[in-house]
Design goal:
CATH topology of the largest domain: TIM Barrel
Low-confidence stretches: 190-207
Strand content: 15-25%
CATH class of the largest domain: Alpha Beta
Largest sheet: 6 strands, parallel
Distance between the termini: 37 Å
CATH superfamily of the largest domain: Aldolase class I
Strand order of the largest sheet: 6-11-10-9-8-7
CATH architecture of the largest domain: Alpha-Beta Barrel
Number of domains: 2
Oligomer: single chain
Number of helices: 12
Shape: elongated
Helix content: 40-55%
Radius of gyration: 23 Å
Mean pLDDT: 90
């Protein structure tokens, strides 16, 4: 997967050729480049950046000096590149784009994880990811200490408001909706092992049936979904008092997930309601990239 993503990214960035470098930098010039961190955060994507540079120029020597998951600060050197200056410059922008974005995701995830430290709750991502980069961005969430929700629609049944609206308009009750989902959904055993993605599917060996989660907006709906046999219930944009009431009403019978309107300012209060999971779209859809740059060292020499 990384190979295809890298090739597309390089093709997009290079176009018909790096006309600036080709005009100014002699082919035989060699030197060293340093990947320098300029902000505080959690590093993620070093292996991907390494692959980018080697795809741009297989003769480059790429040394990873700081591994993914490490906390970094201004002045830290994440990697050292040695070889053709033209090759280094060819891969620079794509490698930094990946490294900055994934580190930004890991850093933001780490902030949320720190806010709920010591509490029995999981910080989860969502499918609100950059098209084509989901696997990479969800990897960055794990690096930051978070957990992955569904990787794809095939990873589990999540009955959301629009599903409920369409079915209720035809007269279906919650119990009938969940029964219909279980009846028509494939069992986990129908998927080959290599296709079983998603945190829940990796961690659970218990069920042959695909788990069913239902999105609700109030306590009554949460109780209805639990009574109807849901495996988990998503409390969508509910107030803290309502979340606490839902936990008192159904906890122990279903897993509870809080979602919607979660921020660094309120995530601990949400965790204190007693929910099992907190899903946060902002981990991937609106993060600030970690400031990272490439700096060439001098002198630059001619290759023999």
């Amino acid at each position: 997967m990384n190979k295809d993503v890298i090739e597309r990214a390089l093709a997009e960035d290079i176009g018909e050729g790096d006309v600036t470098t080709e005009s100014l930098i002699s082919v035989g010039w060699s030197g060293t480049g340093l990947i320098v961190v300029k902000g505080e955060g959690i590093l993620a994507g070093t292996g991907l950046a390494q692959e980018v540079f080697l795809r741009a120029d297989p003769k480059l020597k790429v040394e990873i000096l700081i591994e993914d998951g490490a906390r970094v600060g201004p002045g830290d050197i994440a990697a050292r590149l040695t070889g053709s200056i033209a090759g280094i410059l060819k891969g620079e922008r794509v490698a930094l784009n990946f490294l900055q974005r994934l580190s930004g995701i890991a850093t933001e995830t780490g902030r949320y994880v720190e806010c709920v430290h010591g509490m029995p709750v999981r910080i989860m991502d969502t499918r609100k990811t950059t098209p084509g980069l989901r696997a990479l961005e969800k990897y960055a969430v794990r690096v930051g200490g978070g957990h992955n929700h569904r990787d794809a629609l095939s990873d589990g049944i999540l009955i959301k408001d629009n599903h409920l609206g369409a079915l209720r308009a035809r007269g279906y009750t919650m119990k009938e909706i969940i029964a219909r989902a279980r009846q028509d959904a494939p069992s986990l055993s129908e998927f080959p092992p290599e296709s079983l993605r998603g945190a829940e599917r990796r961690s659970s060996q218990r069920a042959r049936q695909m788990p069913v989660e239902v999105e609700v907006t109030n306590v009554a709906e949460a109780v209805d979904a639990a009574d109807a046999g849901a495996d988990s219930v998503m409390l969508d944009n509910m107030k803290l008092d309502d979340m606490r009431e839902a936990v008192r009403a159904v906890h122990g019978r279903v897993l509870l997930e809080a979602s919607g309107g979660i921020t660094l300012d309120n995530v601990r209060a949400v965790a204190e309601t007693g929910v099992d999971m907190i899903s946060i779209g902002a981990l991937t859809h609106s993060v600030v990239a970690l400031d990272i740059s490439l700096e060439l060292e001098v002198p630059i020499t001619n290759e023999a």
